[in-house]
Amino acid sequence: MVCIPFDGVSIPTKGYLLEVPSMPDIFDFHTHVYDRDFWFRGKGVLRAYAKDYFKSPVRLAVSLPLLARFESWMKPRELRPSSSSRLILFDLVGSFSSISPLGLKLHPPLQDVSACDPGLDETYGLAEREGCPVVVHFGYCSAGNLRFADPLSIIEVVDKFPGLTVVMAHMGTGRGNYWENAKRVARCCDGVYFETSWAPPGVVREAVELFGAERVVFGSDYPFRSVEEELDKVLSLGFSDEELYRILWRNADELLRGVIKRSSSLMVREK
Questions:
Q1: CA angle, 208 as apex, 28 and 169 as ends, to 5°?
Q2: Pairing of strands 60-63, 27-31
Q3: What is the spatial distance between Cα 153 and Cα 268, in angstroms, rounded to a whole number?
Q4: Domains, the chain
Q5: Which residues, other chains included, contact 263 with Cβ-Cβ below 8 Å and sequence gap of 6+?
Q6: How many CA atoms lie within 13 A of 77 on its CB side?
Q7: Nearby residues of 14 by Cβ (< 8 Å), 6 or more positions away
Q8: How far apart are CA 65 and CA 105, in angstroms?
C-alpha cells in the first residue's frame, strides 16, 4: 500500500501513486449519505454517515436519494440525503417540492417509468431552465424493471430539451449492449456525461478516449462502494494530470457551479 498526499495528509490507496505534487480536490458525484443506518439485501446493515464518509479525501460530494420497489430489498424503502455544508443534495424525480432544485435523480427501472415518458417533460423542462443536472440510472438493476433500463431512451429527451444535462450513473452500467447504447447516446448528445462508479476500468478508459475527460465525472456510490477503491481504479488508468483534474474535480464543479450559486449554504470555491 502507498499513500498519496492531500493537503499535507497522506491518504492510503491500494497501490497507485498519482505522479503530481499533490492530489487535486475530489468532487464525488455519486453518494448516498443519510446520517443513519439502513438495511440492504445482500449487504446487511449499511452505515451512511457524513462524519465517516468525509474521512476520505473527498472535499465535496453529491448525495442522491435512494429507493427500493420492495421492502424485501431495502428498509426503509426510501431514503433522502442528510444536510451537510459539504454535500450537494439532489431530489428524486417525481417526489420533490423545491421549485429550484440543485439536481435530480431518476432511476427508471426502480421507478417503473421510461426516461422518455411524456409525464416527465415538465421536470426536464424545469431542469433545463434551472441548469441543474439529472443523474439517470440505466442498465442492469437486480430489483428493477429492465424494460426501462436502455440508455437509448434518453435520446428522445435530449432532442426535446437540448439544454438539459444528463449524467449516466455507473456509465450506463458500463457492460454489454447497455454500454454500446450509452456510447451511441453520447455521440449524439454533447450534454450527456458519464459517472465512473462500478464501471469496469476498461470502460472508464474507453470513455475518456472516445469523448474526452471533460465528459467524465468521478463517483463512488458510497456506502455500496468505498471512495478508496473507486479512486484507486481511476488513478490506475494512467490519465494525465489534466485529465485527472477534469474527472476528479473540474467537470463536477462546472456542472454545479451555476445552480450552487443560488444556495446560500454552499459555495464551490474558485479554481
A1: 40
A2: parallel
A3: 32
A4: 92-260 (3.20.20.140)
A5: 102
A6: 8
A7: 1, 228, 229, 232
A8: 7
What's the DSSP call for residue 21?
S
> If you compute the radius of gyration of the chain from its CA atoms, what whole number of angstroms results?
17
- The pLDDT of residue 177: 86
* CA 86 distance to own-chain centroid: 15
Least confident of 13-22, 82-91, 119-128, 143-152: 13-22
Q: What are the b/e assignments for 186-211, b being 16+ CB within 10 Å?
A: beebebbbbbbbbbeeebbbbbbeeb
Distance CA 30, CA 135 (A): 9
DSSP state of 81: P
Q: Which residue has the cell 488508468?
A: 237
Q: What percent of the chain has pLDDT over 90?
A: 73
Cα-based distances in Å from 139 to 64, 76, 104, 110, 136: 18, 24, 18, 11, 10
Cα separation, 193 vs 182, whole angstroms: 10
**CA atoms of 259 and 99, how far apart (whole Å):** 12
Instruction: Give the model confidence (pLDDT) of 209-257 as tens digits.
Output: 999 999 999 999 999 999 999 999 999 999 999 999 999 999 999 999 8
Q: Which one, of 268, 190, 200, lies nearest residue 233 by Cα?
A: 200
Residues with Cβ < 8 Å from 264, sequence gap 6 or more? none
Pairing between strand 66-67 and 78-79?
antiparallel
Residues 6+ apart with CB under 8 A from 55: none
**pLDDT tens digits, one per residue of 72-116:** 999 999 999 988 889 999 999 987 666 678 999 999 999 999 999
Q: Do you find a cis peptide bond into 101, omega within 30 degrees of 0?
A: no
